[in-house]
Please model this.
Amino acid sequence: MPRRQQPTARQERLGAELRKLREAAGLKGREAAALLGTDSAQMSQIEAGTAGVSEERVRRLAAQYACTDEALVEALVGMATDRTRGWWEEYRGQLPTPFMDLPELEHHADYRWDVEFLHVPGLLQTADYARSLFAYVNPEFPTSDVERWVEHRMKRRVIIERADPVPYEAVVHEAALRIRVGDRTAAQAQLARVLELSEAEHVTVRVIPFDLDDFGGAGSAMVYAGGPVPRLDTVVRDGPSGPVFIDAEAQLSRYRTLFRRVEAVSLDPDRSRDFIHRLAKEM
Model:
């Protein structure tokens, strides 16, 4: 297989997981390469995601690494054999690479959790809200660039709008719902959109009100994408140059705990809908 110049985050994750299994087995790269009848350079490329790996090789490595987690092995085989070229590929070369990796991650997610404090979560945004947000944050962008970003964000909503939607839960702080990103009409339309989506069986929206006592979790904003097994979950956080993907097991455990903590103190879905209704009337 030809070497990949720009592996996707999913391809890099497959390689990283194979490397973790090798290291847990106490084998060096050259020893693993010998098991495949290849060399250390090829093995390094597989573990870096710059070279593909077949189903047969994934299974052979898993057996040699004494990996008995059948669900994990099947998930890794699925990643190795996946040939999906999704809608996001049309934006390659137009938007930064991490913004190709994000919809690919969402496409393959088994479930999705969001925690937001300053903005309505992207999957719940209207086009007008997203447009005002991108234009404000990037005032140097020409209108055509802003529209490209808006279009990309709107297409990402497919995971909760398609025939087989991803189960989705969002915990949103009152601040995000009150801040007017755009004018009053746009703000009202945005709240109406959140309410509309919250009625879907696969969507849960919870609100953290301002008057909650003893709340110190405002720094725990996140996107949490559930994988086919917990080990393949991914957390996405905003970084200086775009989304940052987190997959270390200790960090995943920490963010699961953080999500459960903010979920526990938020209003239940029915009270959250009532709360948003009241906000909409105040706008």
About this structure: The longest strand covers residues 111-116. Residues 249-265 form the longest helix (17 residues).
